[in-house]
Specification:
Elements (H helix, E strand, L loop, with lengths): L16 E3 L7 E4 L5 E4 L1 H8 L16 H10 L9 E9 L4 E7 L12 E5 L9 H10 L11 E6 L20 H13 L5 E6 L1 H13 L7 E5 L5 H8 L3 H26 L6 H9 L7 H12 L11 H8 L12 E6 L18 E6 L8 E3 L6 E3 L2 H13 L10 E4 L2 E4 L7 E4 L4 E3 L12
Parallel strand pairs: 6-7, 6-8, 8-9, 9-10, 10-11
Antiparallel strand pairs: 1-11, 2-3, 4-5, 4-16, 4-17, 5-7, 12-13, 14-15
Helix pairs in contact: 3-11, 7-8, 7-9, 8-9, 9-10
Protein name: AB-hydrolase YheT
Length: 448
């Protein structure tokens, strides 16, 4: 019955709630005649992102968080928001590999200073996810066709979306160095372009932590995070406290992770004496584990390759990786959107630790990465979230005046690295190819 609760109540007027504690004028925005003025982030959002204050009415047949979330997973989006990418592989200094998917493929006419959307996907997804394409399809369409005319680059995690595993490590909610190294490459390749962060679910947690860790030196001019899991301990506990949370969502995510691990178990167990190899061999034998059990068996050991990894327990990993407690360190315009009826993320830090750089938005409905409203045609839906995110991307990509200084990039032993982070580095390797964005991965539940 919980799946259909709220069927009638969802028709009432809904509002979007956001909170910014301070009215301090912290950002410079472009005005007429090449002048600029300083405004608060709250005022900036009110002027340039009006859709955040509009009413969101979920489709009547997707009237609560469970239905919205399940439709995100089970719905057919193969004919909507088609995106084609050109993949570039980069090898990291630790031997790992990331897959960077660029769109539009033929970007030769795009100006060097055109904003670039840097995307991080959810738990076991990739650039093919419908929630990614729902925003990138219009964002990367030409201006003449009603789009923003931007470039986008999706960073596919190690092992996701066809990216090979080439070192004894997967990825996790708390490992930010892969994003950091990908941004070395992107910044070097497009030095004049502002980089706009956009991330979903687990990727949102990674991006939040990265932005907070970098502070004033963040290579992203802004960040927008959707359905971030924030307090991993609290949200995991709440998720497994209900039958549907434990047996549908948590085990669904756990199954996805095991299936992903099975694809790469040969690569991860080349050295059978390695701790990651031992953990992988045990974990692939788990039968429909919860996500917590998967993290206890594998992620706490293989989610990173340098201290503080490995962790003594999944709980210790959750405590370290949670992003809610680092919000106070964010120093770029930062927009976070969650849904109040999200069955996966139920604990949202609406006060943002009082940080004036952060705007928190909580919609009454939307589920986990859903936000479906009725579209033209019987039974058709569209994502409400697309419009406010596009407004944010346009505003932060075109209206912000940035005078930030970044740490210098240099090449050491063939790897591009950053001053002060010489233990990290990346280089482009062969193997790039076209990726059709609507082609999901067999055996994986999408939308998570």
């Amino acid at each position: 019955m919980s799946l259909f609760s709220g069927l009638w109540s969802a028709s009432r007027t809904t509002t979007v709630q956001f909170r910014a504690k301070s009215g301090k004028k912290i950002i410079a925005v472009k005005e007429r005649q090449n002048n600029s003025e300083r405004v608060s982030l709250c005022d900036f959002v009110e002027r340039r992102c009006p859709s955040l204050h509009s009413q969101f009415h979920p489709a009547w047949w997707l009237s609560n968080g469970h239905l919205q979330t399940l439709y995100c997973v089970l719905g057919d989006f193969s004919k909507r928001d088609k995106v084609v990418y050109k993949r570039t592989y980069i090898r990291l200094r630790d031997g790992g590999t990331l897959g960077l998917d660029f769109t539009p493929v033929d970007g030769g006419d795009i100006k060097p200073d055109t904003p670039i959307i840097v995307v991080m996907h959810g738990l076991t997804g990739g650039s093919y996810e419908s929630y990614v394409r729902a925003i990138l399809a219009p964002a990367c369409s030409p201006v003449q066709q009603g789009g923003l005319g931007y470039r986008a680059i999706v960073i596919n995690f190690r092992g996701c979306a066809g990216v090979p595993i080439t070192s004894p490590q997967l990825y996790s909610a708390g490992h930010t160095d892969d994003l950091r190294q990908a941004l070395f490459y992107i910044s070097h390749r497009y030095p004049k372009a502002p980089l706009l962060g956009l991330s979903f679910s687990l990727g949102a947690n990674v991006m939040t932590r990265y932005v907070a860790e970098e502070g004033e030196y963040c290579r992203l001019s802004s960040a927008c995070v959707l359905a971030c899991p924030w307090n991993l301990t609290a949200n995991t506990d709440k998720l497994v406290s209900t039958y549907i949370g434990r047996h549908v969502y948590s085990k669904g995510m756990g199954r996805n992770l095991v299936n992903l691990l099975k694809r790469h178990v040969t690569s991860l167990t080349r050295d059978p004496e390695h701790d990651v190899a031992k953990a992988a061999a045990l974990t692939v034998e788990l039968d429909r584990p919860t996500i917590e059990l998967f993290d206890e068996s594998f992620t706490r050991i293989a989610g990173g390759s340098t201290p503080p990894w490995p962790f003594a327990s999944a709980h210790d990993y959750y405590e370290y990786a949670s992003s809610h407690k680092v919000l106070e360190n964010v120093r770029v315009p930062f927009l976070a959107i969650n849904s109040a009826d999200d069955p996966v993320v139920q604990d949202v830090p609406m006060d943002a630790n009082g940080n004036e750089w952060v705007v928190m938005v909580l919609t009454p409905y939307g589920g986990h990465l859903g936000w479906f409203e009725a579209d033209e045609g019987w039974g058709q839906v569209r994502r409400w979230i697309t419009k406010p995110v596009l407004e944010w991307l346009r505003a932060t990509g075109e209206d912000l005046v940035s005078a930030r200084e970044y740490r210098g990039l240099c090449e050491i032993d063939g790897f591009l690295t950053e001053t002060g982070s010489e233990n990290l580095g990346c280089k482009e390797i062969d193997g790039g190819h076209l990726v059709i964005g609507t082609e999901a991965q067999n055996g994986m539940l999408a939308g998570l």
